[in-house]
Amino acid sequence: MDTTPTARSAPSTPGSADPGAVRRAAWAGLVGTTLEQYDFVIYGTASALIFSKLFFPNISPAAGILASFSAYAVGFAARPLGGLFFSRFGDRLGRKWVLVATLLLMGGSTLAIGLLPTYGQVGLLAPILLVACRFFQGFGAGAEQSGGATLLTETARTGRRGRLASLVMTGAALGTALGAVAWILVQLLPDEALMSWGWRLVFLSSLLVTIAAMVIRRKLTESPVFQELKDQHAQPRKPVGEIFRHGKRPMFLVLFMNVGVSAQSYTYQVFMASYLVSSVGVDAAFVPKVLLVGALCGGVAAVGFGVLSDRFGRKPVYSAILGALVLLPGPSFIALNTGSPVAIVVTIILGFVLAGQGAVGVQMSYFPELFGNRYRYAGVTLGREFSSVLGGGVAPLICAALISAFAGSWIPVAIYMMAMMLISLVATRLAPETRDRDLTEPRDATDRPVTP
Hints:
- The chain contains 22 helices and no strands.
- By secondary structure, the protein is mainly α.
- Helix 4 runs antiparallel to helix 7 and helix 9 packs antiparallel against helix 15.
- The N terminus is likely disordered.
């Protein structure tokens, strides 16, 4: 039962939100997530299009794609480990500290991928190094989106948390768009140049995004909620321990509410690229262009759904999106298999608008609001990142394996996507409404506000 107040007058931060701090937090969250998504999109696109040839060349094309997606999944396996590591500092040292550290780790790992030797140069050492870089890329990303969402939600004033926190996913859409543009440009090169050095330019370009994000984050200030905890010397010594004592229920809610969204999001963003090329026969150069259009539409949708969640509540808006996503997989594959460029573009746009950015845009305020103030960063991070392994991390691999096992049939993939989304929909129906909660309150294991 939801016992928390939802009145519009409920306080959100200790004091009025400083407009300058709000702007800095918005830019910091947007640009940091831009880098995270840029890193993941350029890697995911490379996994679908070229890495099987560069790093796994001595196996069949189908096995090469499976190996590429397995390396891709390693980054997601590393995310909860990074979340465990960084979450203890996010609730003790502050949101800003973690956001700067994760930024450097993600950017450095992506840059290193662009410098790796290929299988033809060093043999088995090449895929080993690729997996290592992917691991550290995921380790840094493990607290990035959760940190940005927590900071923005705690900084915004009551009634505007949804639209402000959703900017994190506008940053994700921008990162996807930039990654698509990078691949569009590099695919203009002759195939020989693309496979020898052109692909490296895409990964080396992450240095520019990293520098831009670092410049913005240097001026970042802590959220008012964390600053109040710090002033009261109330930061928890062991935030993860606090989660398992007081916040297990919201953590598991976040895990299940996100697992299906994560699975469908990365199916549309990563697996569909491979499916369009290998099964539908679409020109590989067309794929980044479709991702670009989908990302731009998704970025707008993230803010739109964030605004709607401020107006109508987190739970009904999130439930409506998830209900639509339960029904979407079958029609999506039917449309893709027509080979029609228009049908393909519309399908990918819907995937981005609903799963890629729309649903996650609502999560950015919904999930932080589920937790008490002493373990909010840790709770959001652990719930989201463990679900990212069970959902998005293995989704492209599972989808590719199902296509291979069932002689190219898309029906098992659609069933898998629908089943994962049903899990998230059921969990959402069990979750409380959180719009306009008082974020300065500690909460007990039954989700009730308590006296510190």
